[in-house]
Specification:
The complex is a heterodimer of chains A (84) and B (234).
Chain A: E1 3-11, H1 18-29, E2 42-48, H2 53-68, E3 74-82
Antiparallel strand pairs in A: 1-2, 1-3
Chain B: E1 4-10, H1 17-25, E2 30-36, E3 47-50, H2 70-80, E4 85-88, H3 90-98, E5 104-106, E6 114-122, E7 139-145, E8 149-151, H4 154-162, E9 166-171, E10 190-194, E11 200-203, H5 221-233
Parallel strand pairs in B: 1-2, 1-3, 3-4, 4-11
Antiparallel strand pairs in B: 5-8, 6-7, 6-9, 9-10, 10-11
Classes of the chains: A alpha+beta (84), B alpha/beta (234).
């Protein structure tokens, strides 16, 4: 049974997230004064046709490092789920 | 003498490829050859230019998908052998994603896509791309980007400085490096850097858009001239 990798890519804290800033200001303007910050990242779903969890995990890590994130300015994390 | 061949890579979404072709062709003895992203053949090019634009629609991250195109595998090999490779704007982003240059470009600090004339100063005139400039020159060259905010970890910046790899900086009209003259928030006002070997240059400003009198500036021409002189001389 294949796996779905639910991958999140986020900007490192040290990088100014101008999109997040714009959303934060918009939320404050909407009256949500308690919203202190907003940061925007990417969510990527990948179906991996591997039977072994370890193999799927290896591929998810590899593609996240190689293409889906840029380690200079981004972090990534993922969850793996069996496709039903 | 046979013409010098300069390869201009065309990705889906490149939009400065023909401007670059035009600028290259305006020099006597130089002939541009267009290289499609799906090809593996550099067609005898003696230097490669990665032009500006939005390769692959800037999907995922600017330059991230272009980096894995067939032609880029050849360009990376070509660069590793020491041949000249120039990346302009999106081309700079592709070079960073490829690992041929260090660092990354994130969104401009004020959120805007910037399309305007900027002043830059060549701070290293001893490269194969800049030896036709003089220290102290202040160039008027346009930028057109949304993601030109150069970032690198402090140890990388230090190493770039130690090895004179910062080649262009944004300045005011007098050539002073000030925060007001920094259009996008780049660390140290960096507009362009070169690799340690000195054969791969990336910059955000567009020298090809400042290579024709009609366009209001000729300040980009010495960059191309430096490159041709290097090729002919080597």
């Amino acid at each position: 049974m294949p796996y779905t990798a639910k991958i999140k890519v986020t900007l490192r804290q040290s990088i100014l997230d101008v999109q997040g800033k714009a959303v934060e200001h918009a939320l404050n303007n909407l009256g949500y004064g308690t919203v202190e910050s907003a940061r925007i990242g990417k969510y990527i779903e990948v179906t991996i046709n591997e039977q072994e969890l370890l193999q799927a995990e290896r591929i998810a890590n590899e593609i996240s490092q190689k293409l889906l994130s840029n380690p200079v300015m981004e972090n990534y994390s993922f969850e793996l789920e069996h496709v039903k | 003498m046979a013409d010098v061949l300069v390869g201009v890579v065309v990705f889906p979404g490149s939009n400065c490829d023909h401007d670059t072709e035009y600028a290259v062709a305006s020099f006597e003895g130089v002939r541009p050859v267009m290289l499609w992203h799906n090809e593996h053949d550099l067609k005898g090019a003696q230097a490669i230019i990665l032009p500006g634009g939005f390769s692959y629609g800037d999907y995922l991250r600017a330059g991230s998908i272009a980096r894995f195109s067939p032609i880029m595998q050849e360009v990376i090999e070509f660069a590793r052998k020491g041949f000249p490779v120039l990346g302009i704007c999106n081309g700079f982003q592709v070079l960073l994603e490829s690992g041929l240059l260090e660092g990354a470009l994130s969104r401009n600090r004020d959120k805007k896509f910037l399309c305007c004339q900027t002043n830059i100063r060549p701070v290293n005139c001893a490269t194969i791309f800049t030896d036709q400039y003089k220290e102290g020159d202040v160039l008027s060259i346009p930028i057109a980007h949304g993601e030109g905010n150069y970032f690198a970890p402090s140890e990388v910046i230090e190493s770039l400085e130690d090895h004179d790899q910062i080649v262009f900086k944004y300045t005011d009209s007098l050539g002073e490096v000030t925060d007001e003259a920094n259009p996008n928030g780049s660390l140290k006002n960096i507009a362009g850097i070169i690799n340690r070997q000195g054969n791969v240059l990336g910059l955000m400003p567009h020298p090809e858009r400042a290579s024709e009198k009609l366009l209001g500036s000729l300040d980009g021409r010495p960059l191309f001239e430096s490159l041709y002189k290097h090729i002919v001389g080597s």
